[in-house]
Design a protein that fits this description.
Number of helices: 1
Shape: elongated
Number of strands: 10
Radius of gyration: 28 Å
Structural class: mainly beta
Strand content: 15-25%
Distance between the termini: 77 Å
Helix content: under 10%
Strand order of the largest sheet: 5-4-7-2-8-9
Order of helices and strands: HEEEEEEEEEE
């Protein structure tokens, strides 16, 4: 007597009898198919192809590359992120820093990246006035220091205008989020004998560059403590004071 899957007679098998997926319940690898209901993937699907139609799902890398379509983006200039487009800087005045203040410049990082440098633009500096207690650094939006440069007196020399690329002593694997680039200047007396920094427009004691909702991230600010000779390991974000130091900075 013939048997099918251990059964005899007029055998009718279901998909479950042969450990198969019922018709209409399987995801096909070829051909058109409509998939209904929410699906959870243990490993998110991925593709290396860019979308070609308006309704096609897009990979993260593609979205990041075109999110600023039609405008100059930080990536266009070789940066990971910046405080603002440097072409929008003030045409009238540069920023000089008071000795012993920790200035904070907010930069939004939208994708994970390894940060190797903090970057400023120095339109002019006669040189020789910075003390070894001058530094730049990087802080998370929670106020934790995650990077610092060597003393700036060995990094910033006489210049008539340059992009100042200041290496962190250790590269930092940064997750997306808001960060502060910190700047601490000591030595120049008067302050305008020190390096000048590219800045945004300034209007009033608290300029438009610091406009935000209550409790939101402070885009341009400083720490209230004076006389600093080193960058603190951390600070509470609530201690950041918004002011008119709309300095331009970037990460790379």
């Amino acid at each position: 007597m013939k048997t099918v899957n251990g059964r005899t007679g007029a055998v009718q098998l279901t998909a479950a009898d042969v450990s198969a997926v019922a018709a209409g319940a399987a995801v096909l690898t070829t051909g058109d198919q409509t998939v209904n209901g929410a699906k959870t993937f243990a490993v998110p699907p991925s593709t290396s192809a860019n979308p070609s139609t308006a309704n096609q799902l897009a990979r993260r890398g593609y979205v990041d590359s075109v999110s600023a379509a039609g405008t100059w983006s930080p990536a266009s200039m070789g940066f990971s992120c910046w405080a603002f487009d440097p072409a929008a800087s003030s045409a009238y005045a540069a920023q000089y820093c008071m000795n012993g203040y920790v200035y904070l410049i907010g930069v939004p990082l939208h994708t994970a990246t390894t940060v190797k440098n903090v970057v400023f633009y120095v339109p002019g500096y006669a040189g020789g006035t910075l003390a070894a207690t001058s530094f730049a650094g990087l802080y998370t939006g929670a106020g934790a220091k995650v990077g610092q440069t060597a003393p700036l007196n060995g990094l910033l020399d006489k210049t008539g205008g340059m992009t100042a690329i200041l290496p962190l002593t250790t590269a930092y694997a940064a997750a997306p989020g808001n960060y502060w680039v910190a700047l601490l200047v000591n030595g120049p007396n008067p302050s305008n004998s020190g390096p000048a920094f590219l800045r945004g427009a300034s209007m009033g004691e608290f300029p438009g560059g610091s406009a935000r909702m209550t409790g939101a991230f402070v885009r341009h600010g400083r720490l209230s403590t004076t006389g600093q000779t080193s960058l603190p390991p951390s600070f509470p974000p609530s201690s950041v004071i918004a002011d008119s130091n709309a300095i331009w900075a970037a990460l790379s």
